[in-house]
Automatic annotation (TrEMBL):
It is found in: Cell membrane. GO terms for molecular function: G protein-coupled receptor activity; peptide binding. Its main location: membrane. Keywords: Cell membrane, Membrane, Receptor, Transmembrane, Transmembrane helix. It comes from the Eukaryota. This is G-protein coupled receptors family 1 profile domain-containing protein. Residues 29-260 form the G-protein coupled receptors family 1 profile domain. The chain crosses the membrane at residues 12-36, 48-69, 81-105, 126-150, 156-179, 200-223, 243-263. The keyword 4Fe-4S does not apply. It is a multi-pass membrane protein. GO terms for cellular component: plasma membrane. GO terms for biological process: cellular response to hormone stimulus.
Amino acid sequence: MDVPRHELDADFIAEIAIGTVLLAGGCVGNALTVHFIRKNHELHAPTFVLIACLACTDISALISRYLFLTFDLVLSYAPDGIINFVVVFGLAALHSSNMHIVILAHLRYKLIVYPLHTVDVRLRTIYRNSAIAWIVSILVALCLELPMIIGVDDQVAYIITVCNGFYLLLSTLIPILWFHFYKVKALRSSTAIPSGGHDVTGMMSVMVTLILTSQVVAIVPLVTASVTMSFIDDIHLRNVLGNTAHCFLLLNHSINPVLFFYFSKFRRRNIDEV
């Protein structure tokens, strides 16, 4: 993978500072999310367990994305094998995070539209789906990165990079919109949500919707940077676009715990424990 080099100018230092804050806050927030979901038996439900799996994935994505952001300071003198491993792992973590988001959208769709058919959804199913997401993501990352490792010309590398960006965007956006459309359609002609459960279901729906939206929005700068890199001769501008994409992804992986704590009915108890 061709990682652009940076000069230690003010913009790069500012981007590293922002990335460091997002890394620290995101890792702590995601770790706390996993801790409280694991500790509170009332949260041992499919949606929350899947959010915990997403939090673990986000920690991996945060660390690898931060290594991309600070490449010149951390990995520039590392052996090629270590660099290739970090790149493949980072791509796998990013794709896995997106797949967990799609699984979350599908789960909420089933729980809301078919509540009577999903009351027996087992946690082992959630763990299995999370493991499958990681396996598929690793295979996708290897398929994307192996041509780069073997060596391809700049045009082919550009095509692979652009395809990766659009794949990330469309593979997340299309399923989310599909599930949302049919969920709204089903709810308009159904009384699936029992009376008295509207508040909890509504809060959960808002939380999940914001998580899904932030995931899609965060991918747009990555796609923009991927498409425009070959048309921009200014190296400084290219570096700014690339690091902006990294920071948006870091922000996305960091914001999910904030949404979880804000919309969870256990947020007061959890904040007191912290």
